[in-house]
Structure formats: C-alpha cells, structure tokens
Amino acid sequence: MTQSKHNETKVLQRFIAVYCRHHHESKGDSLCPDCADLQAYALGRLAKCPLDPKPKCKKCPIHCYKPEYQQKIREVMKFSGIHFVKRGRVDWLVKYFLS
Ligand code: SF4
Ligand SMILES: [Zn+2]
Q: Which residues surround ligand 2, an ion (CB under 5 A)?
C-alpha cells in the first residue's frame, strides 16, 4: 500500500468512527452496522482505486462510488472535518490534505 493510501485509510477510519459515535451512539472505534458497511465499501474503493497518483476522491474525475455511498461519505467527511477542526486537531488533517 502506498503512503497516501495508508494515510487515507486512517483518515476514513477516524472520520467514520467519530461520525458514528455522534449519530448512532457507538462506543470508541466500534461502528454500527450502517457505518461498518460504509467503511468496508470506502476501504474497498480505496484499495481498488485505479488512479496513480490517487487524487482526493472529492477531486476525482471518475467518482467510482455508488451515489448513495458518495452522499453518505460526503456527510461523514463534512461532519467529522468540522469536529476535528473545532477540537484543534488540524495537525494530522493538514498533513493528510496536503499530502
Ligand atoms: S473516487 Fe476516484 S480517487 Fe476515489 S477511490 Fe474512486 S477512482 Fe479512486
Ligand atoms: Zn453508525
């Protein structure tokens, strides 16, 4: 796995965990069935991404996600992005988004 895919995997996991904790009362890093499904889908897409170097999915010309998953992941990224910024956890976000 490339470093950028490795970073993206971590970001996806952290963002989905935070979203799930706030919306579905899950604990720690455990996920509700819906979010576990979304995570499995997103990590599957990431693993199979044909682009090299891989752009951020947001800027991708292909958009390989099914529409319902694309909508869900956008909601997760928006909520959790704001969550981390509010808590001053921009250090690793900046590292990820500038990588
Ligand atoms: S949306 Fe684009 S960049 Fe993201 S995984 Fe799919 S093909 Fe790759
Ligand atoms: Zn959930």
A: 20, 24, 32, 35
